[in-house]
Amino acid sequence: MNSISKLVGSDIQTNDSMDMPNVFLGKSEDGRKSLVMEATTRTALRSGEYVMIPPYKCPVVNNDVNIELGNGTDFQLFNVKNNPGQTNYLAHREPELLQKLIKEFEPSEELNMESISNLS
User: Fold this and answer.
1) Are 59 and 19 members of one domain?
2) Has residue 15 been placed in a domain?
3) CB distance 69 to 58 below 8 Å
4) Of 24, 58, 63, 82, which residue is most buried, by most CB within 10 angstroms?
5) Is the pTM of this model over 0.85?
6) Are 36 and 45 in contact (CB under 8 A)?
């Protein structure tokens, strides 16, 4: 939001965005090191080659169509460069990295993960 705001000449800024118009314009490769992503009301952290997905109290599989929903009872960690299909769970093999990403992710007080809707 802040980058686009600056590109269109606005002075509107938000607390959850970074001002990086040169990255948008291809003049710099110094972009974000990590990013909180959202899908179907759930969030995850992308940091470099890794994605960390926090646990959610929702079904793990949609049994009607046998599709994994990306939910779990534990934190999940994947290297999406080496494993884009996110099938190789790394949380138990890389506990230090997992803890670092959990700390980086720590949701703001405005985000109440217990009240997230079940959209399965």
Assistant:
1) no
2) yes
3) yes
4) 58
5) no
6) yes
